[in-house]
Design goal:
Blueprint: E1 3-6, H1 13-20, E2 25-28, H2 35-41, E3 47-50, H3 58-62, E4 69-72, H4 82-88, E5 91-94, H5 100-115, H6 118-126, E6 144-148, H7 152-163, E7 167-171, H8 177-182, H9 190-196, E8 199-202, H10 216-220, E9 226-230, H11 239-248, E10 251-256, E11 276-278, H12 287-307
Parallel strand pairs: 1-2, 1-3, 3-4, 4-5, 6-7, 6-8, 8-9, 9-10, 10-11
This protein binds D-malate (MLT).
D-malate binds at residues 51-52, 74-76, 99, 283-284.
């Protein structure tokens, strides 16, 4: 049997080479496809690899008559309708290992840029100014970092923060408390973390419980002058509430890599604030991370289609069908 593998997003070359080396595979990966092009090709596809751009929603899945497997080259599967995939017998997997370190490094870069006003100081010098007093920063050593979500990236961030002499607390309802306690970081409740942290970094996935987790009520429980970093998902934050807190100074600054819609809508209240550092969802954007997730995604497609082996399945119920 020949399998048609559709790759409607840009995927790093080594993953594509791995797929193209399989005689049973016909790989269609011309670069970023439009929604219309993807809808046209999806009926032929037996497997699809996506990044975050392609939305595998109910409309697209309704045309996916032959689709057996979707692999997300990366972590977040919020662009894939998992319930609809399960209903249609489509296995969804992700490739969560390859971009952990790059995302943790980017989070730490944002934290340093925020604490030391690096983008603002750079812009000031480019404008011909020399403003040493204006950019007095905050030392990280001795400060408490609150890590919300203690999965792969949260733990990698904790290692880096330790090297900077930060105190750390972590909260994650899904990570057994004894693991976090063993690492000396466990916080029994989110409130306890919010009360202690000088800097809060978000690393949770989006669920009904975590959407809008940073909002007027949770911000009120934070220390005055707290810093917030988000390189996970934009919808973890209620934008209007955080913008208000940034303007009042309750939150001294934020560093944002992710937005509730991407690119952010022009009227996103978090845009254009002087005390915010912005990057355009660059957490996993390193050569190393892109290569690693592409290779992992390709391996998962090969294992699934040729050997019937599935790893990192995000809709496990489908395997019981
Ligand atoms: C991920 O979910 O893997 C990261 O946010 C990176 C990405 O979306 O490409």
């Amino acid at each position: 049997m020949t399998y048609f593998i559709l790759v409607p997003d840009n995927l790093e070359a080594s993953g594509l080479a791995q797929l193209r080396s399989i005689p049973e595979f016909t790989v269609h990966a011309p670069g970023k496809l439009t929604r219309e092009q993807t809808l046209e090709l999806i009926p032929q596809a037996h497997a699809m690899i996506v990044r975050s751009d392609t939305k595998a929603d109910a409309d697209l899945l309704a045309k996916a008559d032959n689709l057996k497997v979707i692999v997300r080259a990366g972590v977040g599967v919020d662009n894939i309708d998992l319930d609809e995939c399960t209903r249609r017998g489509i296995v969804v997997m992700n490739a969560p290992d390859g971009n952990t370190i790059s995302t943790a490094e980017h989070t730490f870069a944002l934290l340093l840029a925020l604490a030391r006003h690096i983008p603002q100081a750079d812009a000031s010098m480019r404008a011909g100014r020399w403003e040493r007093k204006k950019f007095v920063g905050t030392q990280l050593h001795g400060k408490t970092l609150g890590i919300v979500g203690f999965g792969r990236v949260g733990r990698a961030l904790a290692d880096r923060a330790k090297a900077f002499g930060m105190k750390e607390v972590a909260y994650d309802p899904f990570v057994p408390e004894r693991i976090a306690r063993h690492l000396g970081l466990a916080c029994p409740t989110l409130d306890a973390l919010l009360e202690q942290a000088d800097v809060i970094s978000l690393h949770a996935v989006i669920t009904n419980d975590t959407r809008g987790l940073i909002n007027r009520d949770t911000i009120a429980k934070m220390k005055d002058g707290v810093l917030i970093v988000n390189a996970a998902r934009g919808s973890l934050i209620n934008g209007a509430d955080l913008a208000e807190a940034l303007k009042s100074g309750k939150v001294a600054g934020a560093a944002l890599d992710v937005y509730d819609t991407e690119p952010p809508a022009p009227d996103n209240p978090l845009l254009g604030l002087d005390n915010v550092v912005y990057t355009p969802h660059l957490g996993a954007s390193t050569v190393e991370a892109q290569e690693a997730v592409a290779v992992q995604a390709a391996t998962e497609i090969i294992d699934a289609l040729l050997h019937g082996e599935y790893s990192n399945v995000r809709n496990k119920a489908v395997l019981q069908r």
